[in-house]
Amino acid sequence: MAGNILQTWEDVRVTILYCAPDPNVSFLSRLLHRASGTADEDAGACSVEEENLLKRARRALLESGFDRDKVTMVCEGKCADPAESMLNMAVSEEFESILLVRRKASRLERLVGPTTYRLVNLSVMRPIWVIDPPIPSRNVLVALVGGPIGQRVAAYAVRYFSHLTDSKFTFFHVIPPLPPQYWDHGHELTEQKLDEKREKIDRWMKDYEDRVRDFAQEGRERLIEAGVPKENVAFKAKTMKRDMALNILSEMEDGGYGILVIGRIGSKKITEFRLGSIASKLLHNAQSCIICLVN
How far apart are CA 5 and CA 27, in angstroms? Predict the structure, then answer.
């Protein structure tokens, strides 16, 4: 799936990393070992079976259209912490993004955090693609908020997906609830004070929505310049109902989108395991899609 999306993107290079677990160490032992801060000096070597797995992955990329010279394979044997290994390689090799396939977690791993969730929480600077196959389409939903992260999300979507000229792109904004300073706290207000409050709320809503529309318009123009038909690029805004993450998931399903681009932390400062609460809910509940978490 990654190969089908990236193979027409110029100058892209891919390193396939396989972190082979140590068969002699249980998951709990690896967890305790990681928490102790000690290093595993015996890196070990990958088995023939694991090397063959890497070769199959490389062959899949080549068959999707990648140049042979643009694909590298790396196998780390007796890997105690796959998430840390992936992040360390991304930093040392200066990779722009990290892609991984979400896998089913065991009951114990769900309690302490499987590789996917550990990686997205460790990777503060690099965007993460979480792939949960099968992917229904290459249509892209770009979830925007009014803060600076909205602009970065729009720019990232254009940079990585504008070559998908046959895809549908929607810049999607869920209108958030009013911030606390505009709440009605039950105070008795004169008609004049009520009018002043309504004006402030209207001004705040307009300023916020204008910022989002500016991000979307800039992204739309760049997509069209890259060759995406203008009728394939849209902007949509909906009032939040119950939960912002559920609104995004509903839009993903209704529109048949296969790719979601979203910021790690949205308009709220609430965090869960160093991950924005909206992004965390999407990771837990989204299925059959690619989620691109932008920092």
Answer: 33
